[in-house]
Specification:
Elements lengths: L5 E6 L7 E3 L14 E6 L2 E11 L15 E2 L8 H13 L4 H8 L11 H4 L2 E7 L12 H12 L3 E3 H7 L3 H10 L3 E7 L4 H4 L10 H16 L3 E7 L5 H14 L3 E5 L7 H11 L3 E4 L5 H12 L5 E4 L11 E7 L16 H12 L2 E6 L4 H8 L4 E5 L10 E6 H4 L15 H12 L3 E5 L6 E6 L16 E3 L4 E3 L6 E3 L11 E6 L1 H11 L5 E4 L7 H12 L5 E4 L12 E6 L13 H13 L10 E6 L5 H4 L6 H14 L7 E9 L2 H17 L9 E13 L2 E10 L6 H10 L7 E7 L6
Parallel strand pairs: 9-14, 9-15, 10-12, 10-13, 11-12, 13-14, 16-26, 17-24, 17-25, 23-24, 25-26
Antiparallel strand pairs: 1-2, 1-4, 3-4, 3-5, 6-7, 6-8, 18-22, 19-20, 20-21, 27-29, 27-30, 28-29
Helix pairs in contact: 1-12, 4-6, 8-9, 18-20, 21-22
Bound molecules: adenosine-5'-diphosphate and zinc ion.
Length: 747
């Protein structure tokens, strides 16, 4: 019969929950949270991660408790704070913890091999935590002695040194850590951040920047969790605020983590960090090679680097003494991971910040309604930058009503012109002044649907429930969901009638622009044109060097770019995302339009924006006219409250996908019944919607159904979600069920 304490272990297999193992005498006192261990599992052995001690045995485990086999690391692969964060994430997002940990670790640490390289160069330090005093340790003289030693040498010393001075101090320090009097940190002997600190030229800050930087400095000095929304209009200089806050945190020996939506798309931000901090920045993007990723992880883990700039997954970077977390463009949908552990990095950044007692800054010109609501409720403090740098004006926005522009001649094409006369005129004027133009349309390809003029048949994907897009460059029709492509038929496959190419995409805009402005240099920025990181960089660089006059593109052109030569931004059609069956479609549309409008007039010359639309009266479009974020948000929040959508409710989507339509529907119904029976009787406001076919009912030949749970809190949904989870192991293997907590896109 094993004796407590037991080891809580996350097994690196797709199994839910935490597992309990006995700790053999030989391993007692050697286990540290985050260590990789080998444990018996099923008939064999599995990689596991030690989470911590527990005195509680799971029901029924009784005398048959198996024991931890072996410890694989000296230094834990995963620092203790990340163990805590991932434990939260796995519970919240209902994902196997071991798998979540493996995904967070860099290759080389996520397997069973001993990571010798990872353990190299690391020195462990013990640091007394604020307020720790030996006074309270009268009954534990050894602990009091170790703590007194630490305080005497200034609060911090290498563990080896303490152990040399006070025999047995290694164990004693661990006890002190459990009492939260001491913190153990690993620090590399090599370069410190201060040496790498490159004092960039400081410009004079705007009054808004001064206030924001001041507030962040105070929060960093005070210590403790303090979350902020930095709401700064486009071109207000949010990056400079991040830079100065980061500098302050680093100068106080704290770690800094900056999350950005996409690094390849916005190289300017990383560039600004690099030019300010030199090589003291770890840049964590998705294109890193395995070795580079491991190296960056080790340098952060050892404390050699204390500043990381990265995409979503950098949330799990092993920074030491995290003091500042920034989420730039916090409204961006790419912070939501859409596979495996389906986390929202912005939300988890706030969790990590609260666990670490750090300052958190969520920055945006168009804060998400979730963040706005948290600010309204006083959970986050709001910092406002309401003017552009150097008092540059916000661009003037005008709408072009496409309903009026549609030709009324019988027999003429149904569609309005791609570029209406006001657009053409503005473009001509801008080009004549030697300035640059951005044209935005959130659809790639040439024609977004192909339909028969005689029988009305439209070309659709065989495997997906969507229309095919015609691409001019390849001369093919392509499905944007499964990638399937084939040649454009010469005539309607049903009746041999003439095919019409309708629905405008970026390729068509590009072609039309080239025709209208034959001397202008035109380029296109979308996933087809920027098919590799190199091409993307080159396209952006050429535009920045002003070797391109007109840039046509999808939402890729709307990101945080800072091109001073751009004085005209045209939205070819504002409505493309407005009618999607997603409760966030109005918000997304407003954000995109505001962001793309914000690319105009960032240099010396003022900017203008022209928005072509069929819905000039919709909130999402009309509020862009006066940069009216507050007005739009107030309206939209009211609607969300009325219909119980986030931020006024928590949501979970249960997505069911399967090979066979009938079987899939049956599973969805079975899940629905189970969940309905588990709905809490007393709790008000828990609603189960569906099962219903997903808005796109078929992708890659798979039938898709979904169920939606809405409730005032996550806790209120636990019952039905547990019921759904319990059913998962019994489902036929041809059906896949995913539980998506706080879902992003609803399609
Ligand atoms: P935002 O992210 O708020 O849209 P950026 O951080 O990209 O804005 O800043 C816009 C531009 O203003 C950049 O070129 C930046 O270098 C510049 N800038 C930032 N702060 C100042 C300042 N205080 N004075 C002059 N220019 C500034
Ligand atoms: Zn398809």
């Amino acid at each position: 019969m094993a004796t407590p304490p037991y080891a809580s272990v996350a097994v690196g297999r797709p199994v839910r929950g935490e597992f309990t193992y006995a700790i053999p005498d030989a391993l007692r006192g050697q286990l540290l949270p985050g260590q990789r261990v080998l444990v018996p599992f099923g008939r064999g052995k599995a990689l596991g991660f030690y989470l911590g001690e527990t005195d509680v045995l799971p029901e029924g485990a009784g005398g048959r408790l198996k024991a931890v086999d072996r410890i694989l690391d000296v230094v834990p692969a995963l620092p203790a704070d990340l163990v805590q964060l991932l434990r939260f994430a796995a519970r919240h997002y209902r994902y196997p913890l071991g798998e979540a940990i493996r995904a967070a670790l860099p290759p080389g640490l996520s397997g069973q091999d001993d990571a010798k390289e990872a353990a190299a160069k690391v020195t462990w330090f013990a640091a007394a935590l604020p307020g720790a005093s030996p006074e309270a340790l009268k009954r534990a003289p050894a602990q009091a002695a170790a703590l007194s030693y630490l305080l005497a040498v200034g609060g911090r010393a290498p563990v080896d040194e303490v152990a040399h001075a006070i025999p047995g101090a290694r164990e004693t320090l661990k006890k002190l850590r459990e009492k939260r009097l001491v913190q153990l940190e690993s620090v590399a002997q090599v370069a410190t951040v201060r040496e790498g600190l490159h004092q960039g030229r400081h410009r004079e800050l705007t009054p808004g920047q001064v206030r924001a930087v001041q507030a962040l400095r105070e929060a960093l000095d005070a210590g403790g969790f303090s979350p902020f929304l930095l709401h700064g209009v486009t071109g207000s200089g949010k990056t400079e605020v991040y830079l100065q806050a980061a500098e302050h945190a680093l100068s106080r020996g704290k770690g800094v983590l900056i999350l950005v939506p996409e690094i390849a798309l916005t190289p300017q931000l990383v560039g600004r960090f690099r030019s300010r901090f030199g090589d003291a920045v770890a840049v964590l993007h998705s294109a890193l090679k395995d070795r580079e990723r491991l190296r960056a992880w080790q340098r952060l883990r050892s404390g050699e680097l204390r500043l990381a700039v990265g995409v979503r997954s950098a949330l799990f970077a092993p920074l030491q003494g995290l003091g500042l977390l920034v989420v730039d463009e916090e409204h961006d949908p790419s912070f939501k991971q859409e596979e495996k552990l389906r986390y929202q990095a912005r939300d988890l950044a706030v969790v990590r910040g609260s666990q670490a007692g750090a300052t958190v800054v969520l920055g945006s010109a168009t804060p998400s309604l979730e963040t706005l609501e948290n600010t309204r409720r006083g959970r986050y403090r709001k910092l406002v930058l309401d003017a552009r740098v150097d008092d540059r004006p916000m661009p003037e926005v005008a709408l072009v009503d496409l309903r009026a522009a549609r030709p009324r001649v019988p027999g003429a094409a149904e569609e309005a012109p791609v570029l209406s006369p006001p657009l053409l005129q503005a473009m001509g004027e801008t080009l004549a002044r030697g300035q640059q133009v951005i044209l935005f349309l959130n659809r790639r390809g040439h024609s977004t649907f192909v339909v028969c003029a005689v029988c009305g048949h439209s070309l659709r994907c065989r495997a997906c429930d969507v229309c095919l897009t015609h691409h001019l460059s390849s001369g093919r029709v392509q499905c944007h969901y499964c990638g399937d492509a084939h040649g454009l038929p010469a005539a309607c496959p049903e009746c041999n009638g003439q095919l019409l190419l309708l629905g405008v995409g970026t390729e068509r805009v590009e072609a039309e622009v080239a025709e209208r402005f034959p001397t202008a240099r035109v380029a296109r920025l979308d996933r087809d044109a920027a098919s590799s990181a190199e091409k993307l960089t080159e396209l952006l660089a050429a535009f920045a060097r002003r070797e391109t006059d007109i840039l046509v593109g999808t939402q890729m052109v709307a990101k945080g770019h800072d091109f001073p030569g751009v004085t005209l931004v045209c939205v070819v059609m504002a409505d493309s995302s407005l009618s999607l069956p997603d409760f966030r479609s109005a918000e997304r549309t407003f954000h995109l339009l505001t962001q793309v409008a914000g690319r105009a007039g960032r240099g010396r010359d003022p900017g203008r924006v022209l928005v072509q639309t069929y819905n000039p009266d919709s909130e999402a479009v009309s509020r862009v006219l006066h940069h009216d974020y507050d007005g739009f948000s107030a309206q939209e929040l009211q609607w969300r409250e009325g219909f119980l959508y986030p931020p006024y409710a928590r949501m979970v989507a249960i997505r069911v996908e399967g090979e066979h339509p009938e079987q899939t529907a049956a599973v969805a119904r079975a899940l629905g019944q189970k969940m309905a029976r588990a709905l809490p009787r007393a709790a008000v406001g828990v609603r189960l919607l569906g099962p219903a076919p997903a808005p796109i009912a078929r992708i890659r030949g798979k039938t898709r159904w979904q169920l939606l749970l809405k409730a005032p809190t996550h806790a209120a949904m636990a019952g039905p979600l547990d019921a759904a989870e319990a059913l998962l192991p019994e489902l036929p293997s041809a059906v896949k069920v995913v539980i998506d907590v706080d879902p992003g896109a609803m399609l």
